[in-house]
Design a protein that fits this description.
This protein has 19 helices and no strands. It is mainly alpha-helical and about 475 residues long.
């Protein structure tokens, strides 16, 4: 047999520089390397040949190799740098957004804390102003009695100053309101407290006369009580008007019955009896207690009748009404101090001996107290005005103790404390029982949650200790 030998055809030769030469227009990358054996390669350099290794190059691997050759290292670095910059930019934007949101939250919290603090300061100043003006009025009356013993003239003179309440209110309206009104238009607008027709002569006499008489009686009896008792005792007894308002409202206005306020009324009556018993139900003490209780009673009647016939009023209407009382006092009640002067019930001589400075001090402080009461009810809560009134009791006690060297008996001190506690009980809201029950239930729920958290923490701690010791705790069924 003849042996057949297989001949291997030589690989086509091509110039290596053809690979590195640029690709001509219209030719693809595959046209550079796809040269079939025995065929002519589309290369310009056909004369120069080189024999390659017997390893055949696959067509699929040629394209990635050429693509890697065409890519420069600077392009890859530039692309990675751009990616890094974009990522860092996004992270910086997120960080800036988070920091700005945190700054906004911090500013909001700061503003809320500042507004809350300013509100607390404003309320504290209202309470302090009400208490100070009432203490000052009481103490100025006691000083005026040393040289001028005419309580009704002081009452009449101080009530005339109420005429200035509405002008003061209108001045505030001009200073603060954006849409300013003329005095006549504002006066007519505030006159609606008397009815839709405003203030007429008939309504002026019908509505103003009883309230003006009650106002004068309240202040006159209060000043008479200061002649017999100390300022502390009179201010404490006057706080009973809150209990009298509740009793009259319950009887006349059919307000809601509250057990706590009944207890407060009983405490007020107990304090009155103890105050009268301090000197054995005789002498000037019992008369002074009667004057003070009468002043508190007329004050309560004034408030209940005002609520019954006039209802609630805003600051402008209240200022208009108080100024109207001042006009009625000046026109119709001026004859009373003249009669008392000529009958020598309240007589002073000479006229220059009248302590006008002390009288103006009493009238100015009384006017400030009335304005603060009306402003405080509108701008703050009525409970703050009541707290300011009851704080006048320790204020007067401090002045009596430090200036007048008063010594308080145990009975008077106990009566004062009981009356003040009853006054504070009157400040409880109508739904105080529901609020108290909700508060107690919330405390119980919070305590049960804390107890459950403590049990969970202790079980986790026990489980971790048992695992550390190599034992497993099995709960009992």
């Amino acid at each position: 047999m003849k042996k057949r030998s297989a001949r291997v055809a030589p690989l086509p030769s091509f110039n290596v520089s053809a690979l590195n030469s640029p690709v001509p227009d219209g030719a693809s990358r595959s046209s550079v390397i796809q040269c079939k054996p025995g065929g002519n390669c589309p290369s310009r350099h056909r004369g120069m040949t080189r024999q390659l290794s017997p390893l055949s190059v696959a067509e699929d691997s040629a394209a990635p190799i050429l693509e890697l050759q065409n890519r420069s290292p600077s392009g890859i670095c530039r692309q990675s740098r751009v990616e890094r910059q974009s990522r860092s930019g996004e992270e910086g934007t997120q960080t800036h957004t988070e920091s700005s949101s945190q700054e906004a939250e911090g500013q909001t919290r700061c503003q809320s804390c500042t507004s809350t603090f300013l509100k607390l300061i404003w309320r504290f100043l209202i309470i302090l102003s009400v208490s100070s003006s009432w203490v000052g009025t009481t103490q100025f009356v006691k000083i005026t009695y040393e040289t001028f013993d005419c309580p009704f003239f002081m009452t009449w003179f101080s009530t005339n100053w109420n005429i200035m309440v509405f002008p003061i209110y209108y001045s505030g309206h001009l200073a603060t309101a954006q849409e300013k009104q003329s005095p006549i238009k504002k006066f007519r607008e505030c006159s609606r407290i008397f009815g839709e027709d405003g203030l007429t002569l008939k309504l002026f006499l019908k509505r103003t006369a009883p309230f003006s008489i009650l106002w004068t009686l309240t202040n006159y009896l209060y000043l008479l009580a200061l002649k017999k008792l100390t300022a502390t005792d009179v201010s404490a007894l006057f706080c009973c008007n809150k209990a009298f308002v509740f009793l009259l409202s319950w009887i006349v206005l059919k307000d809601r019955f509250m057990g706590a306020r009944i207890v407060a009324a009983i405490m007020a009556i107990t304090g009155i009896v103890m105050m009268a018993y301090a000197d054995g139900f005789q002498g000037d003490s019992i008369i002074g207690v009667a004057y003070a209780v009468g002043s508190a009673s007329t004050s309560a009647l004034y408030k209940v009748l005002f609520k019954m016939f006039l209802g609630s009023a805003n600051f402008g209407e209240a200022a208009h009404f108080v100024s109207t009382l001042g006009f009625f006092n000046l026109i119709f009640i001026s004859v009373t101090p003249i009669i008392l002067y000529f009958t020598k019930v309240e007589y002073w001589s000479p006229f220059s001996a009248v302590p006008w400075g002390y009288l103006c001090g009493v009238a100015g402080l009384w006017l400030a107290f009335n304005i603060l009461v009306n402003v405080g009810v509108v701008l703050t809560y009525p409970i703050l005005i009541s707290i300011g009134t009851v704080l006048s009791v320790p204020g007067n006690a401090a002045v009596d103790l430090l200036k007048h060297k008063m010594i308080f008996s145990v009975v008077r001190l106990g009566a004062t404390i009981i009356i003040c506690i009853g006054f504070l009980l009157m400040l409880l809201p109508e739904e105080w029982d529901e609020i108290t029950l909700r508060f107690i239930n919330s405390l119980k729920e919070k305590k049960s949650e804390d107890h459950a958290d403590d049990i969970t923490d202790s079980s986790v701690h026990t489980r971790s200790r048992s695992r550390a010791n190599g034992t497993v705790s099995i709960p009992l069924a």
